[in-house]
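Example complex used in Figure S2.
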Amino acid sequence: MLKIAGREIKSRLFIGTGKFPSTKIMLEAIEASGAEIVTVALRRVDIDNPQDNLIEAIDRKKYLFLPNTSGARTADEAVRIARLAKGLTNWVKLEVTPDPNYLLPDPIETLKAAEILVKEGFVVLPYINADPVLALKLQDVGCSTVMPLGSPIGSHKGLRTADAIKIIIEQARVPVVVDAGLGAPSHAAQAMELGADAVLVNTAIAISPNPKLMAQAFCKAVEAGREGYLSGLASPSEKASASSPLTGFLK
Amino acid sequence: MTFLDILNKNPITFDDFKRLLSKEGADNIEALAQRSHQLTKKHFGKTIQLYAPIYLSNECNNQCVYCGFNSKVSEKRISLTVDQAYDEAKVLSKMGFKHILLVSGEKKETISVDYLKKLVSKLRGLFSSISIEIYPMTEEEYIELFAAGVDGLTIYQEVYDREIYKKVHPAGPKSDYDFRFDTPERGGTAGFYRINIGYLLGLGDWFSETLALAKHAEYLQKKFWQSQVSISFPRLKGSSVSDLQLTQMICALRIFLPKAGLVLSTREQAELRDNLIPLGITQMSAASRTSPGAYSIDAPSSSQFPVSDLRTLSEVAAAITAKGYEPVFKDWDSNFIML
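Predicted assembly (590 residues):
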């Protein structure tokens, strides 16, 4: 079973809560996805208000409520925003995205913030570009996962960073969660087949005409991809059938 | 390239944008709307962020010929004290608003930087996001306001055409075109998270004004890449800009700038506003009153523009829900700015 910071996680599909047409549709989709980890932007909730719609909607006995720092442009901002959730949980999905358009993560500020938050006792799950060296440095400072992107958030482009993600997985000491850009269940399956420990999906489910069904599809795709990985995928290779063998002399 | 080919491109060029705004675009308005809807959904999801204005003062040193705050119009003028403005804010907060826009005429003596700082420090307890739409300020003043907790700046050029600008702004500090034009620039440098621009629909030529607006927004997006650039569509009452043109420019701007915020106020009728929800709009005001004190005190004084959509916040929210969209009240947090 997947384990993050000592906690066993039942589902390898994490789900985001943005962009849904209503809280009701969001809850149905979360339920159908089988996800245990649900991430919520702290900017969207009134963290001190237990009656806040979104906080109240997500049953924290059933789901692991993972607040994120979406909107932060700098390490300082991310740290300040993360601290807001301290009364509720010490888990945080760290996002430092100075460009509000493509929402690509700032590696330098992310590393700075991660270091501070880990020291303060947070379980830190940083969103990063698929940069293997950054992934290693984040593990060195004590992050509990790394979350490289497949392609920009909401782009539906799938696993454009597959080669770099493969290296991250190969070198990882913590779970690798592919986050962002997964636009179709097959993209999620592909990430899992590569050996990712989990994936995070939001837009593809939230803006689907049928979010519940799409959540189900992602759930199955993640399981299928994982099982494919575990069963040992044959890697596509050129057939070794040279017409004149190079080692014939050994006979 | 056929018109429909442009709709399948991302990004499109400025020349493509011109074609979207042309008669061809009007003839293909449905295809334009479909593409705009698709791009908006992808980047913003099915959500509409709600905000309300608080009018602080209708005193003004300018004489904009189209405006109810024109200093030549002799109507009752008031400026709210910090406490009165706070009373207004409490009403909006109680309704459920989390994002507010502070609006004022150009009366620097009364609505001073110090006044605004005092007010903002009180408002931070009630709201997650505080933007300003007041007279243009210097970069230093914006830096002070940003540090006090103002996160967004709205400033309309009103009209990009210099000749018309001169004609409709005959006197007062606003007659300085360039100082106004550089305002978003100073705000961006000061660090605001959101920069909102626009022109008054009906003052100049729709086509060339929209081209100028698109260029302006694109420039700001590139230069202030850490800020969210938004565009508003304030249409004057009785404007020559038709519903079709308004729709066409919303869709064309969305396709040209897929990630820009697009804002629609209560200047527009309820029915039109509802119909524009899926077409590209990302933010809407609701339950707006456009004269100072109008939420909490019963003092009829001159308003900046007549409100067309008179629905309450819950009625607007219900209309958004009925369209299959989520009304979003909070999408920011005052803690992003450290005091």
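The mean pLDDT of chain A is 91. The radius of gyration of chain A is 19 Å.
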